[in-house]
Design goal:
- It is built from twelve helices and 14 strands.
- The protein has helices at 13-16, 20-35, 75-82, 88-100, 121-138, 199-209, 225-229, 237-246, 259-265, 285-294, 298-304, 320-329, and strands at 42-43, 52-53, 63-71, 106-116, 141-149, 159-170, 185-190, 217-218, 223-224, 249-254, 272-277, 309-315, 334-342, 352-355.
- The chain is of the alpha+beta class.
């Protein structure tokens, strides 16, 4: 019984763990960084129930819309452990837009989803600033998103992010496996490190089993382990589009989960294989650190990590010099890594043969 005669306070949403005011504050903090990603086709701003984008159909004869959805995976655990949240959004954009450009699609816009245990406006601002930076690098607009507070399902420090992107390509300029020919060259684009794949294995070996600290300095890495693991994924979207516009690119392959061989095989037609020579490049030291400490077999490393190659282009061999010059001018490390060859058995699925040894 209330001795003072006042009515007892009732339960509130905030008391249950969801702070609407904090969510509103987060939206206010991200408005400026989101505006910086706007393209001329964006209609309106944040705050609506749907993001609006006016597709300029006069630019394409037969526009095809392409879409992709992805997340960042357990690289988030490294960001959360280090308290560094302003680069993980770049990884999110990279994983989405670099899938779109495989078929030649220009990324138009992206929407994000952030689920967290507790909305900390400044942390949400840092995450979204990274997403906005990634969108600027890719040339696409961030036209909306959602932040959800899951107080009864996630700890206050936990969060997860996902994104969906939409792009467009003219049907007459669509890239794909059906364009690939015997004798085509395989051009490799250098990765910036682990990108956003294989972190369950990397964290298990480096942090759990070897007991290395994220703050520890490593001479072979030239920086701390945490800085190496948080290196943002390279975004190739604009570079791929520029290359497709200037050379005879048949198709791209984004090297993500499954590694180089599995992802390149996805864009080869039945009856054609690819031979890729490992001796054409040297993986970054972090891959050697992982394989050495974990005694990971070469085949397992190659199907888990990108090993220094983040994107592949299959193109007419006559265009190699022009392609390399273009990518060099755009500061993208690139080299000829292999070629397309007839398969020994034309009836089986395409395969990629990795030969030689890394330098």
């Amino acid at each position: 019984m209330n001795a003072g005669g006042d009515k007892p306070k009732g339960m509130s949403y905030a008391a249950a763990g969801v702070d609407i005011d904090a969510g509103d504050r987060a939206v206010q903090l991200i408005q400026d960084v989101v505006r910086r990603t706007a393209r001329r086709e964006v209609v309106g701003g944040l705050g609506g129930f749907a993001g609006l984008f006016a597709l300029d159909t006069s630019r394409w004869r037969r526009p095809l819309l392409a879409s992709s959805t992805d997340g960042v995976g357990t690289k988030l655990a490294v960001a959360q452990a280090m308290g560094v949240h302003d680069t993980i959004g770049i990884d999110l954009v990279a994983m989405v837009v670099d899938d779109l450009v495989v078929c030649g699609a220009e990324p138009l816009f992206l929407q994000d989803y952030i689920a967290c245990g507790r909305v900390v406006p400044e942390r949400i601002q840092a995450i979204v600033s990274g997403i906005a930076e990634g969108c600027q690098r890719a040339g696409c607009a961030l036209i909306g998103g959602e932040t959800a507070e899951h107080a009864d399902r996630m700890s206050p420090a936990d969060y997860d992010i996902a994104g969906t992107g939409v792009g467009v390509v003219d049907a007459d300029e669509l890239l794909g496996a059906e364009l690939v020919r015997p004798g085509d060259a395989v051009l490799a684009f250098g990765s910036s490190g682990l990108h956003s794949n294989g972190y369950v294995l990397a964290r298990r070996i480096l942090l759990a089993d070897a007991g290395l600290a994220l703050e520890s300095q490593h001479d072979e890495l030239g920086r701390t382990l945490g800085e190496e693991l948080l290196e943002p994924t390279r975004i190739y979207a604009k570079d791929c589009l520029a290359l497709a516009a200037e050379t005879g690119v048949r198709v791209f392959a984004h090297v993500t989960g499954g590694g180089l061989a599995a992802n390149l095989a996805r864009v080869l037609p039945r009856g054609l294989d690819a031979v890729v020579d490992r001796a054409t490049w040297s993986p970054q030291p972090v891959f050697g650190l992982i394989s050495g400490l974990g005694r990971v077999a070469e085949q397992e490393m190659e199907r888990t990590f990108n090993l220094g190659v983040g994107m592949l282009a299959v193109l007419d061999a006559d265009d190699i010099d022009r392609a390399l010059a273009l990518l060099t001018a755009r500061h993208v490390p690139a080299w000829v890594a292999g070629e397309v060859v007839p398969a020994a058995d034309a009836d089986r699925n395409s395969a990629v043969r990795l030969v030689g040894h890394h330098r």
